[in-house]
Amino acid sequence: MKLLSQLRTSSFQLALLYMVVFATSVFLLLAFIYWRTAGFMTAQTDETIEAEIAGLAEQYRSRGVNGLITIIRERVARDPNAKSIYLLTTEDSLKLAGNIENWPEGSGSAGGGWINFTLNPIVGWQGPERLARARIFEVQGGLRLLVGRDVDDVTNLKRVIETAINWGMGITLALALLGGFLMSRSTTRRIEVINNTSRRIMNGHLSLRIPTRGTEDDFDQLAENLNQMLDRIVYLMEGIRHVSDSIAHDLRTPLTRLRNQLENTLITVDNEEAREHVGQAVAEADQLLATFNALLRIARLETRGNSANLTVVALDELVSDACELYEALAEDKEQSFSQSLEAGVKIEGDRDLMFQMISNLIDNAIKYTPEQGAINVIVRKEGAGAVFEVQDSGIGIPDDEKDQVFQRFYRVGKSRSLPGNGLGLSLVSAVAEIHQGQILLSDTNPDEVPPGLTVSVRMPAFTGVHKRIRATEPETPGDTSTTASSTPETSQP
């Protein structure tokens, strides 16, 4: 599977294109060499035959037919290997001289041209079959003369050259393919490092940076530019987060005073209408304080990172406690509230933070599931992971918004009319990140309307080796107020 993914990479396809261009150029070069070599050997054979024909013509002019016959017989006698081929016959094919007995097939239509034939018993050849090339022309008096050469060695040499070219092309293609694979593999590794780091950064590890090799090549320059861009983004994000956290911190104290003054006023007011208005103002102040407390709680969790005090927590027992707390609320809405808790599922985590996360998700499920709806809470173990899951038959979340609901203050359009501040899932995400957890949102019943929502949180299961991580939660700078209430912060995702 990894090899197939390697073959689909753009770097391998580019290397493959280069291989095709390189192989084509090598093929054209070898073809030119073969053409020039084969052409040279054929031309040399033809020149030798032409030279012999010129010599025989000179003998014929000076000595006549008898002299021609004599010189042919002398040349045959001097050439025991029969490299030269001769045949002189009368008009009715009666042999006068030569080292073959009969005319080759197709020689009757040669008309003074070149022919290629095989030396075999049909033409009266006594040795093994060999290839020959000859020229035929008419001699005065109706005589016909064939002058040729044994070209079997030349043909075999051509075959050797062709075989060498074929092997050379095969080796060239194999080496080009291997080189392209190695080159694309090296490039893919560098790209994969960038992709893996980018994915981890997108998952929230903003402190990571893309590693460089120090070679100052294109990839190093790309990595450095991306790292500088990340530094700038983190700087801007931290600035915005610091401003929002500072506002929440600075406004919480005067809002608390205002709320207390309104509550005191509520006690002293005798008019029923005025008491109702003051009561509404107290409720609004409580909602604002809950929002600021949630903001500060998320800020502390994000600042804390992995420095929480972790203990071994029985996830099924913790979820059971939370379900016991919220079961009555589900009964008030006549909702079906079921539990499927696998015993013995343990994680290493902060019990208080985990309880907040679990309570938030259960409370959201109850809040956004209509009456007569169904809610199912699940704890199970999957491989090396522990899974906590809440399924409901509520309004659900559109697919194009599932990646955005963990942002602060983000609320799905269908839930804007319901109470909440859009910070519940942000808090859940922060707690899950501390516990190295992953959150997956999906539709409970994709084919139904509404589809409902299933929230799955997968965390590493306890391995039997307890690791208590050191520090306690750092204080928010300048925060001298009391710790926010542990009541779960609920909001529509």
From TrEMBL:
UniProt keyword annotation of Membrane present: yes
A family per Pfam: HAMP
GO molecular function, one term: phosphorelay sensor kinase activity
Classification via SMART domains: HAMP, HATPase_c, HisKA
Subcellular location: Membrane
Domain (HAMP): residue spans on this chain: 185-238
Top EC class, one word: transferase
EC number: 2.7.13.3
Domain Histidine kinase: from-to ranges: 246-463
UniProt entry keywords in alphabetical sequence: Kinase, Membrane, Phosphoprotein, Transferase, Transmembrane, Transmembrane helix, Two-component regulatory system
Record's compositionally biased regions (Low complexity): 480-493
Transmembrane segments: 12-35, 164-183
Name of the protein described by the UniProt record: histidine kinase
Source species of the chain: Marinobacter fuscus
Taxonomy of the source species: Bacteria, Pseudomonadati, Pseudomonadota, Gammaproteobacteria, Pseudomonadales
